[in-house]
């Protein structure tokens, strides 16, 4: 063992957050305190995501011990790569060490972990020992004792949230001058353009482009390669004649969103924005138009991440849909806007509400595993509270003819250990931006009321 190799001591919350974190530290060594094993044992029971992760960590550890034939634990177990976990540096692996005796710490588990790490540091003075934990207070305690402590950041989708793909970009005023040889044609009532792409035009499929000013134009990238790009002129949903289920776009980003939501060739849409930008209303309006009028999908299925990750849902009375109803206030509020006929009075409104409710199903995330949705319009609300693994579980439920719309605001993450850069919504936006059947739009302007707009800025 050389001094250049670091030793990372992992806290329980890191393993419960990402069971594959054991194999994410390249050629460096891993140390697991005995207290962490005890906490994993306490967390293994249950059907929650945390419990499943705890059991997965135990299986990984048992597999590593069995590969060593029960020998050489004190000398460290080679962190061989399990199937599906990619190592970064040409297969170089570290070794896994366990605490060989009970910690000298007393009281809280955090103090026992700190004690074991201090002992490890004293035994390895020639090597850097780093505590990895997602617990901010434990990192503060470690700093007080002179221990290097870091957050687990290997699961971050990107280094800085400000770098996240926005889904739209402004074109320079000289855009048409830069592309003198543009092929244009009309097909089925739509206008298309094909042009040579410049090096500074880093476009993605279904990215929306806009040219402001007197000669304003709004376009969407249909196809792009290293040399050329095909663009299509966007429909103007801000005009009442092109309203979607009675909803007209109030700003440029809303028009972008309605265009991709109504396009049957776009199977996956992510809408990111703060409260009041119209995410849920636009998604529902587009869904109703395609379910009720165009009959493109059989029904709308709406779900959301309950902040308690499902445990509290069992204490609510009724069926699955009735249990989810308290979490679906946004759906109820928006349906009042969408199901408000001008004629028919209260009876007409009730009849419309009953008709729409029959085509909208509310489902819990807890029971999504193993299901397949055929020709459905699936709305996932509050997607910022999902982990990347949960997001993958949901998106892979899509069968033929299904469209998935993810809504969220990463400034309102309620789930512990998730941040703007590790949220499943951020992960999906970054991973899907190159796919030709997905689209993302960041909504920036609130459209609720002047009171809500002022409050969001001033408070």
From TrEMBL:
Keyword ATP-binding assigned: yes
Pfam families in UniProt: PhoH, PIN_4
CDD domains the UniProt entry points to: PIN_VapC_PhoHL-ATPase (cd09883)
UniProtKB keywords: ATP-binding, Nucleotide-binding
UniProt-listed InterPro entries: P-loop_NTPase, PhoH, PhoH2-like, PIN-like_dom_sf, PIN_dom
SUPFAM superfamilies per UniProt: P-loop containing nucleoside triphosphate hydrolases, PIN domain-like
UniProt feature coiled coil, ranges: none
Limits of the PIN domain: 6-140
Listed PANTHER family: PIN DOMAIN-CONTAINING PROTEIN, PROTEIN PHOH
Record-stated family: In the N-terminal section; belongs to the PINc/VapC protein family. Belongs to the PhoH family.
UniProt-recorded name of the protein: PhoH family protein
Naturally occurring in which organism (per UniProt): Dyella lipolytica
């Amino acid at each position: 063992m050389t001094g250049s190799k670091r030793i990372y001591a992992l806290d329980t919350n890191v393993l419960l957050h990402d069971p594959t974190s054991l194999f994410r530290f390249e050629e460096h060594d891993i140390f697991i305190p005995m207290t962490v094993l005890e906490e994993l044992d306490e967390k293994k029971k249950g059907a929650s995501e945390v419990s499943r992760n705890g059991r997965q960590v135990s299986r990984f550890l048992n597999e590593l011990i069995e590969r060593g034939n029960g020998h050489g634990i004190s000398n460290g177990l080679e962190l061989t790569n399990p199937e599906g976990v990619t190592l970064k540096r040409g297969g170089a692996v570290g070794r896994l060490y366990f605490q060989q005796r009970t910690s000298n710490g007393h009281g809280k588990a955090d103090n026992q972990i700190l004690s074991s790490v201090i002992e490890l540091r004293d035994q390895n003075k020639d090597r850097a020992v780093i505590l990895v934990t997602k617990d901010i207070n434990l990192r503060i305690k470690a700093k007080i004792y002179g221990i290097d402590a870091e957050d687990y950041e290997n699961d971050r989708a990107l280094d800085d949230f400000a770098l996240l793909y926005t889904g739209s970009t402004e074109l320079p005023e000289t855009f048409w001058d830069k592309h003198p040889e543009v092929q244009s044609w009309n097909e089925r009532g739509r206008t298309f353009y094909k042009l040579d792409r410049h090096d500074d035009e880093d476009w993605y499929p279904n990215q929306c482009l806009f040219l402001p000013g007197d000669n304003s134009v709004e376009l969407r990238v249909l196809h792009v390669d290293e040399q050329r790009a095909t663009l299509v002129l966007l429909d103007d949903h801000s005009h009442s004649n092109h309203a979607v289920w009675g909803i007209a776009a109030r700003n440029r980003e809303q028009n972008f969103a309605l265009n991709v939501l109504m396009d049957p060739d776009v199977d996956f849409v992510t809408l990111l924005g703060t409260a009041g930008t119209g995410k849920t209303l636009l998604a529902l309006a587009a869904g109703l138009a395609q379910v009720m009028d165009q009959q493109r999908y059989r029904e709308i299925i709406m779900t959301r991440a309950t902040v308690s990750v499902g445990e509290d849902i069992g204490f609510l009375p009724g069926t699955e849909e009735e249990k989810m109803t308290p979490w679906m206030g946004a759906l109820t509020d928006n349906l009042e806007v969408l199901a408000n006929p001008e004629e028919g009075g209260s009876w007409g409104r009730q009849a419309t509400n009953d008709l729409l409710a029959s085509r909208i199903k509310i489902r819990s995330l807890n029971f999504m595993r193993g299901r397949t949705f055929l020709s459905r319009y699936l709305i996932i609300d509050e997607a910022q509270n999902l982990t990347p693994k949960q997001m993958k579980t949901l998106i892979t439920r899509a069968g033929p003819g299904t469209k998935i719309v993810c809504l969220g605001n990463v400034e309102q993450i309620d789930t512990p250990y998730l941040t703007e850069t590790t949220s499943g919504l951020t992960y999906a936006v970054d991973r899907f931006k190159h796919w030709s059947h997905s689209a993302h739009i960041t909504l920036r302007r609130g459209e609720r009321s002047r009171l809500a707009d002022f409050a969001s800025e001033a408070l």
